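Quick one, tokens below. Sequence please?
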């Protein structure tokens, strides 16, 4: 991993370890999930349609960061599609990254969390995140980190389930907390507001069709980093 990419500070895991005011899912949950993550049925039903949408939206660039990269399926596809691009995958699960490294050693695999990314500011041209953002216990802090590591006018491609109403979001969140692995799916409007508050201009949002999730489809939000953040908050 090139030294100029990794921020020369200790990698922090506070946002995804449950410390502080935000309750987070457990790392072991994702380490265990890594054993079934790559099953063809799981990938075809859940992840491939979202990955296809990301790949269609990507343009040639120098450096891409995949946050919440899992076992590296998307990052490896990006590297194959954009052969002149340096691709970095970041995940806080050692189990996921172990499989990612075996999949494609040419990708830079880094362990870290979305709330305290271990990269220097202004490093990447594109930040992508698919089906991971809902797990981040402090979503505004994650967006601030996305902003920080992107170059001015860098692009954000953020894909996750957007619910039709805040009531659905709150009910799903309450249920996930009871199970001990909390997540929050925002509405399309909520994610737009949060992304704009973090300093991005939203270029568009579109639903991604996948058969098992037609009632709660993922949404791809495309945004570009402004010169400076506007304001913080939800």
């Amino acid at each position: 991993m090139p030294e100029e990419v990794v921020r020369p500070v200790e990698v922090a895991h506070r946002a995804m370890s449950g410390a502080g005011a935000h309750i987070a899912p457990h790392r072991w949950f994702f380490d265990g999930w890594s054993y079934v993550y790559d099953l063809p049925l799981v990938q075809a039903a859940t992840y491939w349609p979202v990955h296809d949408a990301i790949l269609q939206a990507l343009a040639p660039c120098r450096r891409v960061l995949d946050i919440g990269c899992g076992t590296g399926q998307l990052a490896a596809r990006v590297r194959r599609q954009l052969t002149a691009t340096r691709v970095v995958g970041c995940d806080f699960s050692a189990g996921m990254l172990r499989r990612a490294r075996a999949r494609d050693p040419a990708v830079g695999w880094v362990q870290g969390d979305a709330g305290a990314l271990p990269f220097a500011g202004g490093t990447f041209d594109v930040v992508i995140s698919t089906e991971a953002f809902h797990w981040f216990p402090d979503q505004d802090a994650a967006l601030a980190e996305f902003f920080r590591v992107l170059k001015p006018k860098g692009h954000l491609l953020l894909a996750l389930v957007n619910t039709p109403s805040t009531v659905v979001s709150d009910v799903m969140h309450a249920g996930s907390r009871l199970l001990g692995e909390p997540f929050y799916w925002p509405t399309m409007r909520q994610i737009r507001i949060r992304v704009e508050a973090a300093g991005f201009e939203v270029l568009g949002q579109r639903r991604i069709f996948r058969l098992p999730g037609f009632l709660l489809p993922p949404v791809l939000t495309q945004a570009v980093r402004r010169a400076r953040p506007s304001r913080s908050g939800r």
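The two ends are 35 Å apart (CA to CA). The longest strand covers residues 150-161.
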